[in-house]
C-alpha cells in the first residue's frame, strides 16, 4: 500500500497528475479515486500479468463492497522498470484518464460531485502528486 490522500476536493474542471516509477518485476498496480476507501469512482488497474490479464488496463467502480462492470483498455503504454505519468481529469459525468499517447473516459457511476480520496498500491512507487 502506497500513500493515501484524503480531502483532495477535486471537482469537475480539475485534474490530478500522478508521477512515479514502475517496479522492474511489476505484475500490476492500482490507483483509486473516490469519496473514500469504500466509494471508489475510479479503480484504475494496469496489469502486466495479473488475474489472467496481460498488458491490459482494467477500470472499475466500487460502492462499499459491490464492484461494477469492468472496463478494459488494450492500449498499454507502461513498461516494467519505467516511469509513468497519469493525469485524471474530473468532468461532470466522467473522468478522463490521460496516458502517454492515449486517453479514455470512465463514467462517474457513483455521481460523485467531489473526489476527495486517492490511493495507490502495487508495483508502483509514487514520486509526485499535483492537482489544479
UniProtKB/TrEMBL annotation:
<dbReference type="GO" id="GO:0043236">
    <property type="term" value="F:laminin binding"/>
</dbReference>
<dbReference type="Pfam" id="PF00337">
    <property type="entry name" value="Gal-bind_lectin"/>
</dbReference>
<dbReference type="GO" id="GO:0030395">
    <property type="term" value="F:lactose binding"/>
</dbReference>
<dbReference type="InterPro" id="IPR044156">
    <property type="entry name" value="Galectin-like"/>
</dbReference>
<dbReference type="InterPro" id="IPR013320">
    <property type="entry name" value="ConA-like_dom_sf"/>
</dbReference>
<keyword id="KW-0430">Lectin</keyword>
<feature type="domain" description="Galectin">
    <location>
        <begin position="2"/>
        <end position="132"/>
    </location>
</feature>
<protein>
    <recommendedName>
        <fullName>Galectin</fullName>
    </recommendedName>
</protein>
<dbReference type="GO" id="GO:0005615">
    <property type="term" value="C:extracellular space"/>
</dbReference>
<dbReference type="InterPro" id="IPR001079">
    <property type="entry name" value="Galectin_CRD"/>
</dbReference>
